[in-house]
Amino acid sequence: EKANKEIREKLARYRIRQCEVADQLRITEFTLCRWLRTELKPDRKAKVEAAINEIVKKIYSRELAVSYTHL
Fold this sequence. Notes:
Elements: H1 5-13, H2 18-25, H3 29-37, H4 42-69
């Protein structure tokens, strides 16, 4: 069983790449990969989840904007 399963599943569900999360956190993709190898501590996990949520918000606000222009 891989560590940080929920985070990995969320990335897959929303088709978010690790490099996008790393950019949002202002860390390298390599650092994020290292973090994800072992179960994250609560404070770091919260930061990663917040970064994913920000990316999801951006994706959906773009999609909403596009869908409204087609009305």
